[in-house]
Design brief:
single chain; FAD/NAD(P)-binding domain; Elongation Factor Tu (Ef-tu), domain 3; 6-stranded antiparallel β-sheet; about 35% helix; binds flavin-adenine dinucleotide
Length: about 425
């Protein structure tokens, strides 16, 4: 019988989970390896350190991040409440004083009488799981020793990824009248790929904009590993004017039904999920700054109004192959009582990581109480995110966006508010049951 919980990692997911379980009287031990053993992305020994931006994104419920926050409010998130207490001005975004944010979380963890152990957790023992549930919340910079332990313990190599992700776009914002469906070298109409043709003039403009676009600097330790395996488009473009036309934008074998011939160049979109509401840009992994990615893609007629739901990134990012290793409740398929949350589960973003900690802690509590685990409604942002990270193939870390929510009927302008209203009603009904 499970009676206590070990949480490994005192970041966003781990702290939110520990505070929830402590509220319910569950004995929790929280392991945090910093400051003694730091990572390449953290700068302090603080709990729940925000490693980059101090913005937790929008609070407007008609945005995906705002909706997520409203759901977190309903779920009684400690981290959201603390973030609001140390808010700094940032328009409709919830930005925080990062030092104060971490300090308040640290204080709450201490007063909640959570046992905080400042050491690197390196061992997993089958015996532990008889009376203890374990939550892996070690984040994108999980220690290498723990990764090796996990790999042995779960008898898998599905554990270690570098993140080289092409942008993913919301299908509702693509103008399909400027595109054609076709597979390369197939004569019949239709196909699995959506192709965006470019003529010579547009290709020239796109190429120049790409060459001039601002990039994010590449740390040396990442450059070698990443670029050996997989070139970002801006690096390919540096190879010469035609490099893209012979690479990720090659038109060969793609016949545009409007002209009956191959275009000068083409961008291919591939379905990202079964619901067909997300598409990724094939071969377009990039380190361009996010506003530059949007500016560049909007040069393409079919993408004039495109919404990017997941920007291209290339950085070290440790996460597990959740769909293979964990079930719909984020519990290991082979090791009962071993759970995962936060970025390690494929959730990307501060608030997404925190909410996954909250949800998984809720499942652990139910296990302790001998109750069945819960399925969150797919109409909610929380439910849609969990469904995505437990089903996607291949899994790419995902943050809150409207594209992963099931479609809703309505005028284009109203889609977001309709999805948002439906999500909050579904969450309220779910919590009242
Ligand atoms: C470089 C980078 C920049 C990012 N920028 C943003 C951003 O601007 N906005 C945004 O919303 N998201 C951002 N993210 C995304 C990400 O979701 C956040 O980093 C988020 O903090 C993840 O939360 P987490 O709880 O999963 O991990 P973390 O907050 O990183 O917490 C994990 C904790 O586990 C500890 N740990 C690791 N291994 C062990 C071990 N073996 N034993 C004990 N402790 C251990 C770590 O020290 C850390 O404190 C970024 C990610 C990266 C890699």
């Amino acid at each position: 019988m499970i009676g206590q919980v070990k949480i490994i990692g005192g970041g966003l997911a781990g702290c939110e989970a520990a505070l929830f379980l402590s509220d319910h009287g569950v004995p929790v031990t929280l392991y945090e390896m910093r400051p003694a053993c730091s990572t390449e992305v953290h700068a302090t020994g603080d709990l729940a350190e925000l490693v980059c931006s101090n913005s937790l994104k929008s609070t407007d419920p008609n945005t995906a991040s705002g909706l997520l926050k409203e759901e977190m409010r309903l779920l009684k998130s400690h981290l959201l409440e603390i973030a609001e207490a140390c808010r700094v001005p940032a328009g409709s975004a919830l930005a925080v004083d990062r030092k104060q944010f971490s300090e308040l979380i640290g204080q709450r963890v201490t007063t909640a009488s959570i046992r905080l152990v400042r050491e690197e957790y390196t061992q997993l023992d089958s015996e532990d799981f008889r009376r203890t549930a374990v939550m892996i919340c070690t984040g994108p910079a999980t220690s290498e020793r723990f990764m090796r332990t996990l790999s042995r313990f779960m008898s898998t190599t599905e554990l270690f990824f570098f993140d080289a992700v092409a942008p993913v776009v919301d299908s509702e914002t693509i103008d399909f009248s400027c595109a054609f469906e076709a597979d390369r070298y197939k004569e019949e109409e239709g196909g699995a790929y959506v192709n965006l043709p470019l003529d010579e003039e547009l290709y020239g403009r796109f190429y120049r904009a790409l060459i001039e676009a601002e990039k994010i600097a590449v740390p040396d330790f990442e450059r070698k590993y990443l670029f050996d395996r997989c070139q970002p488009i801006e690096e390919i473009a540096r190879g010469g004017y035609d490099a893209l036309r012979y690479g990720p934008m090659k038109p060969i074998g793609l016949i545009d039904p409007k002209t009956n011939r191959e275009p000068y160049a083409a961008i291919q979109l591939r379905q990202e999920n079964a619901a067909k509401n997300l598409y990724n840009l094939v071969g377009f992994q990039t380190r361009l700054k996010w506003n530059e990615q949007k500016r560049l893609l909007r040069l393409i007629p079919a993408l004039r109004e495109v919404e990017i739901v997941r920007y291209g990134v290339m950085h070290r990012n440790t996460y597990l192959n959740t769909p293979k290793l964990f079930d719909a409740h984020l519990e290991s398929k082979t090791r009962p009582n071993l759970f995962v949350a936060g970025q390690m589960s494929g959730m990307e973003g501060y608030m997404e990581s925190a909410v996954s900690g909250l949800v998984v802690a809720g499942q652990v509590l139910r296990r302790i109480q001998g109750k069945p685990l819960l399925d969150y409604p797919i109409e909610t942002m929380v439910g849609a995110l969990i469904a995505y990270i437990t089903q996607a193939d291949p899994l790419r870390p995902m943050y809150a966006n409207f594209g992963i929510l099931p479609p809703v009927k309505g005028k284009k302008k109203e889609i977001r508010s309709l999805k948002s209203g439906r999500a909050l009603r579904a969450m309220e009904a779910f919590l009242s049951e």
